[in-house]
């Protein structure tokens, strides 16, 4: 049976050699502890982990370690994480340690993955190549259901493929989920009458783990054609429950709010790559992974690798649609697509609702920026006979 390999960056404490530090990681996460014990037996030895490689990297070291597959309970992601991303982060002998990536053998990927995935979402929208354009209802919170639906309507008529709730909006008193969802779906039907185009609305159903499937089923009964989950705050298995529920037959948009507390520090924590792999395994159809030019911190090389982890062949699982979001506007579209390719969802909140002529014009400008790129024309050139894009570039510039 093939084993698990995990890659860590670490910086040992001054009194600890890199070899001892790497060994400490392996022992802590397999059969060891801080001292030799009298209770161990020969047959336990087969579960010992192993340091496969160790090399200097920047101010620290990178090590690849082997964890025997037998240590893992197949299909139990919380247990997987307790090994590859467990106590090691607290070891005092390590000044810093970061899980960079993890490779699970097929025997430990008994998951079904996305129900729709990138291709399935494209089929719903009717696209094959072009990037999808999405928007987040802004302001994040505060609008009542009627006004939320109005914003959604204008974004849909303007040309977006996806509209989503913000990560902080769920079922608060000022905008109850039921009322909001019904109002938005009604206005989207109206927009579809006009444009003939299908638009997905990712209603945020984030809730306690034992209620989330019920909340999704309820939303689907009310007409939802997509649901959204804050996967870090809800927990990975909440996503698993949603994706494995036969009753949840709509795509799942995965937001990663709170991720940066874990992923941002290049020396300590968990990189986005293992999180991306787990979200794909557990059934996320779309996942935020970051931008190359937006408002959130980003590492372009890491980001490209994260998106590849979502889309490359992986034990027959469908690809998850990467989402680039956060501080985007039409002037940034070319940079995103040049660096990340066109199999991507480009999402803009402020970059659409902040357009000088309003939401509909903002959505048109984003679509025009995408069309310009797909036609190999610069945004500045394209703006000469596309008014909404011209106005957006005047407001936010071309980068
Ligand atoms: O609240 C926000 O900031 C956003 O709605 C973007 O709005 P704007 O388009 O107005 O910036 C998203 O939550 C971020 O993209 C999340 O970050 P990430 O995608 O990196 O997880
Ligand atoms: Mg948001």
UniProtKB/TrEMBL annotation:
EC number assigned by the record: 4.1.1.39
N6-carboxylysine sites (modified residues): 164
Family matches, as Pfam families: RuBisCO_large, RuBisCO_large_N
Tagged with keyword Metal-binding: yes
Gene3D superfamilies: Ribulose bisphosphate carboxylase, large subunit, C-terminal domain, RuBisCO large subunit, N-terminal domain
Enzyme class: lyase
GO molecular function, one term: oxidoreductase activity
Residues that bind substrate: 140, 256, 288, 325-327, 347-350
UniProt record similarity statement: Belongs to the RuBisCO large chain family. Type III subfamily.
Oligomer status and interactors: Homodimer or homodecamer. In contrast to form I RuBisCO, the form III RuBisCO is composed solely of large subunits.
Name of the featured protein: Ribulose bisphosphate carboxylase
Organism: Methanofollis fontis
Lineage summary: Archaea, Methanobacteriati, Methanobacteriota, Stenosarchaea group, Methanomicrobia
């Amino acid at each position: 049976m093939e084993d698990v390999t995990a890659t860590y960056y670490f910086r040992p404490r001054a009194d600890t050699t890199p070899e001892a530090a790497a060994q400490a990681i392996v022992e802590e996460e397999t059969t060891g502890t801080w001292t030799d014990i009298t209770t161990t037996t020969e047959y336990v030895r087969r579960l010992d982990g192993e340091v496969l490689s160790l090399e200097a990297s920047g101010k620290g070291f990178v090590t690849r370690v082997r964890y025997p597959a037998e240590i893992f309970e197949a299909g139990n992601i919380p247990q997987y994480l307790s090994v590859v991303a467990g106590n090691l982060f607290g070891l005092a002998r390590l000044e810093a340690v970061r899980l960079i990536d993890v490779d699970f053998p097929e025997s430990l990927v008994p998951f079904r993955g996305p129900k729709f995935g990138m291709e399935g979402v494209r089929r719903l929208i009717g696209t094959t190549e072009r990037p999808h354009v999405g928007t987040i209802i802004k302001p994040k919170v505060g609008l009542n259901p009627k006004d939320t639906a109005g914003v959604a309507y204008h974004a849909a008529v303007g040309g977006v493929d996806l509209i989503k709730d913000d990560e902080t909006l769920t079922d608060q008193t000022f905008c109850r989920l039921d009322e909001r969802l019904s109002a938005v779906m009604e206005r989207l039907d109206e927009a579809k009458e006009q444009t003939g185009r299908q638009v997905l609305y990712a209603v945020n159903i984030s809730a306690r783990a034992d209620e989330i499937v019920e909340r999704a089923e309820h939303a689907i009964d009310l007409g939802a054609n997509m649901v959204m989950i804050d996967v870090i705050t809800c927990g990975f298995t909440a996503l698993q429950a949603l994706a494995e529920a036969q009753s949840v037959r709509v795509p799942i948009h995965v937001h990663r709010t709170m991720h940066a507390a874990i992923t941002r520090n290049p020396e300590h924590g968990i990189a986005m790559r293992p999180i991306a792999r787990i979200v794909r395994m557990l059934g996320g159809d779309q996942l935020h992974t970051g931008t190359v030019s937006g408002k959130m911190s980003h590492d372009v090389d890491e980001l490209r690798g994260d998106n590849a982890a979502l889309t490359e062949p992986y034990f027959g699982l469908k690809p998850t649609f990467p989402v680039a979001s956060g501080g985007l506007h039409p002037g940034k579209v070319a940079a995103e697509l040049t660096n990340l390719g066109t199999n991507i969802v480009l999402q803009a909140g402020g970059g659409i609702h902040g357009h000088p002529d309003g939401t509909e014009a903002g959505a048109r400008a984003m679509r025009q920026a995408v069309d310009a790129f797909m036609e190999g024309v610069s945004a500045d050139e394209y703006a000469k006979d596309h008014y909404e894009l011209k106005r957006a570039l005047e407001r936010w510039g071309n980068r």
